[in-house]
């Protein structure tokens, strides 16, 4: 509660003479400094405005026109201070606004481009027409459909005339001439040269079989996928990485799905090491199998069952990513299909039962140097086609089970 007015003791004139000097047509010695009644004031520039004494004393309020709160034609209005901006006002009076106004209004440039922006943004950043500067696409001139019509044809479910080739906002949906639907940023496609991953002649291909792998070195681990295991692992091994586990062959789309789930989880947990996308410190997380990592990342249902089947529970993993011989079935085999064989299979099509048939021929591996090496190696071809592209087969016969290779072939 404020004290009772006592003229000469606690009035505005006595306590705040510099403020009282601006009182306009009223006596400040008869008013308490905390009075909330709006009264007229006169500044040194001759501007008259309304404000309560309390606002002036407690909130340091000053002239609305000098402070830029209100526009005064010929003094602080936009038309007076920024005539070049005022000339672009579209459908409104620039003499009614200050240059610090946050009001969003329409503007028009000398090329008749119309856009919306606040007065404060334009005056503070000296910004011009977003169309002329290239920030917005000009339909029929600088939009994607006009500049790159061949690329715009692949826009799927959106209008390419509404974006410019350099747009780097959100990912858009595309459909390649072969019918593959995928997502990519406009700038990556227009400027970076990226395209359909399934049609690419290089990089990871989701329509081909793949491997999922887990590697480690020193105090670091990483997850990855590849269509070409030998080439990829040779590169990693050259950088000091050792194999913890490898699962495959699986569908390329399945491998990508699992990897993305794991990488997103690692990112959410802030485990990803700086400068990498799929590496983490074993101080934060240490796993011994891909299924263990996938479980932590929330992979479940049939996807988790598939990973566990590829690496059965109860079969410990060796440093080379294989299960020990004593835990293996009597015979295991692996077939590495080359891209040429896969393409030939697609071209030949399925048989009358709807299956794809292959001929496999194996011989005893005379160069076998350890139990981890295959006991038999051989070739794989399309059934009944002697000149078909060749792939390779590896077979392991577990000597701990008993019997001989003659019993198994």
Give the gist of this structure:
24% of the residues lie in helices and 20% in strands. It is α+β, with helices and mostly antiparallel strands and 409 residues long.
Can you walk me through this structure?
This protein has five domains: 1-68, no CATH class; 78-125, no CATH class; 144-190, no CATH class; 209-310, no CATH class; 325-408, no CATH class. It has helices at 12-15, 17-20, 53-58, 78-81, 83-86, 119-125, 144-147, 149-152, 186-190, 229-238, 252-268, 290-296, 301-310, 339-348, 405-408, and strands at residues 39-42, 48-51, 104-108, 114-118, 172-175, 181-184, 209-217, 220-226, 242-251, 279-281, 331-336, 358-364, 376-382, 391-397. Helices cover 24% and strands 20% of the residues. The strands form five sheets. A four-stranded antiparallel β-sheet has the order 9-7-8-10, sandwiched between helices. A four-stranded antiparallel β-sheet has the order 11-14-13-12. Residues 312-328 and 399-409 have low confidence and may be disordered. It is an alpha+beta fold.
Summarize the topology.
Elements: H1 12-15, H2 17-20, E1 39-42, E2 48-51, H3 53-58, H4 78-81, H5 83-86, E3 104-108, E4 114-118, H6 119-125, H7 144-147, H8 149-152, E5 172-175, E6 181-184, H9 186-190, E7 209-217, E8 220-226, H10 229-238, E9 242-251, H11 252-268, E10 279-281, H12 290-296, H13 301-310, E11 331-336, H14 339-348, E12 358-364, E13 376-382, E14 391-397, H15 405-408
Antiparallel strand pairs: 1-2, 3-4, 5-6, 7-8, 7-9, 8-10, 11-14, 12-13, 13-14
